[in-house]
UniProtKB/TrEMBL annotation:
It comes from the Bacteria. It comes from Streptomyces wuyuanensis. Homotetramer. This is Flavin-dependent thymidylate synthase. The gene is thyX. Pfam families: Thy1.
Amino acid sequence: MTRNPDDIKPSFRSDVTVELVKHTAGDSDVLWAARVSTAGEQSLDELSKDPERSKGLINYLMRDRHGSPFEHNSMTFFISAPIFVFREFMRHRVGWSYNEESGRYRELQPVFYVPDESRKLVQEGRPGKYVFVEGTQAQQELTGRVMEDSYRQAYEAYQEMLDAGVAREVARSVLPVGLYSSMYATCNARSLMHFLGLRTQHELARVPSFPQREIEMVGERMEEHWAKLMPLTYAAFNANGRVAP
Ligand SMILES: Cc1cc2nc3c(=O)[nH]c(=O)nc-3n(C[C@H](O)[C@H](O)[C@H](O)COP(=O)(O)OP(=O)(O)OC[C@H]3O[C@@H](n4cnc5c(N)ncnc54)[C@H](O)[C@@H]3O)c2cc1C
């Protein structure tokens, strides 16, 4: 049955979704893994034995970049964000597992990214040394209008092909990178720290990075979840310049 283009109602978002869907991650996991090297097999409840010593050990591991004790834990996030964020995200190969929704097996839904007024629109400076500044009211209005028009047109073309019997995997070629996708991403504290060091900006970062704002929004939300699960590890990460061990 042919759909009426007027029935297709794209929706426009400016935010990202990040849910912690499962985890086995705590500061005890770091201590447990680290102490096997000096004391052999350990109980998992290392933290409660001597909290100050535990805190010191985690800080020492972070400072001297003994990284492997930070790998014995797991966090799985459900993330919904524009495809251009996922293109950047999946460059992180080590210590990450991904499963993303399929554009071959299901019809993609018309949800698209439009920046809100908090998103700085104008880049000033040269490559490698630039800043982003607020756009004018006119630039904001133009960006919203042009993006929405373009998304509508692309999604209508997609629908037209589907209605004519063209396969989803072929028809999706016309959809833009502003389309939302979703995935599960599983990592451990070490791979998350490496990600955060590159994809967030922070006053405590010893090595500054310049991430695109939208992937930074995802990183900030993952960081909030992780900070609650592993507060000592999180504090040591910040205290040591936000460089992954
Ligand atoms: C601000 C910013 C701008 C960027 N711009 C671009 C761009 O313009 N174009 C572009 O293509 N990418 C760009 N990237 C992506 C970047 O080059 C990395 O691919 C991405 O940040 C993932 O980092 P990673 O390789 O360290 O992470 P992971 O893939 O998770 O690797 C983790 C670590 O494992 C080691 N490692 C992994 N694979 C190898 C290997 N094959 N050989 C040796 N060591 C390895 C390295 O020590 C690496 O740091 C950008 C990233 C950032 C943060």
